[in-house]
Amino acid sequence: MAEIEQNGAIVTLFSTASAVGKTLVGTNLAAELARGGYRVCLLDLDLQFGDVCNYLQLMPESTIADAQQAFAVEGDHARVEACLTPYERDGIIFYVLANPSLLEEAYNIKPDTVKRIVQQLQTMFNYIVIDTSSMFSVLNLSMLDISTVVVFLGIVDFLPTIKNMKSGIDTLKKLNYDRNKLRIVLNRSNARTRIPMDEVTGILGETFYHILPNDFQAANASIKSGVPLVLSQGGDGLGLALRELVRRSTNQHYEEEPADGNEKNSGGLFHRLFGKG
Q1: pLDDT band with cut points at 50, 70 and 90 for residue 267
Q2: Which of 68, 72, 142, 196 matches a 20 to 30 Å C-alpha distance to 259?
Q3: Half-sphere exposure of 48 (CA within 13 A, CB side)
Q4: Is residue 275 in some structural domain?
C-alpha cells in the first residue's frame, strides 16, 4: 500500500549477562546485511558503556543524544539521518547511531523518544540492528516490543551465566513474550568448560537456535582492526558462523520460518510489565 513505503525490520541483540559478545555479533550482523545490498542502521543502546564505535573505530560527530534533542526542538520534523555516522569498507556501507558521549546524557535518554527515532529509521532502512545493555530496563523492553527478531545471546563458561540466561528466558515466557521471534544463540561454544551441553540445555529448558564457535584470536583481531569478521579474510570459522546466523535470524532463505518475521504481540512486553495500555 502507498501509505507505508518502507517498514524496516528490527533485529535486537539482547542478553541478561554482560560480556557475551552482543556488540561483536551486532556489528557483524549489520556488516553482513549491508554486504548483501540492504540499507542498514546499527543503533547502540548500551547508553552508558556502548562499544559499537570502538569496535568499528568510528569517531561520531553526533549521537542519539543529539537525535533526542532534535526531536525536542523540531518534533516530527526532526531528521535522524543528520545524526548518523557512516561505516564504509571496500564499497560496503552501513550507518551507526552512536550511544551518548557523556554519562549525564545517557541518563536522560527517554524510551518514548528512542521509539520515535527507531520508527523514523524504519522508513529509511531495510534493517535496524539494535545493540542493547544487559538488563530488563524500560528502554530495552520497549525495543523488544517492536522488534521483528530478538537474538538472545549467552555463553556457558560458568554456572552464573547459565542461571542468568535461564532467568531471562523464564522472564520472557512469564510476560507472554512471542517465542516465534526469539533466537537463543550460544557464543564461544567450544571454550573450555566442564559443563556438558546436555546439562546446559536441561537447565535452560531450551535448545540453542544457533551456535557460534570460540575464536578469541580472530575476534580480538577484528576489534583491533575495526573490520567486522564477515568483511575480512581472517576468522573463517567464526566469520562463516556469523554469516549463517544472519541468514537464519533474518529469515533469509529459510521458508520454514515465518516469511515476514512480523509476529504480533498482544500488548507487548512494555505494556504487560508496567500496566500501560
Answers
A1: very low
A2: 142
A3: 8
A4: no
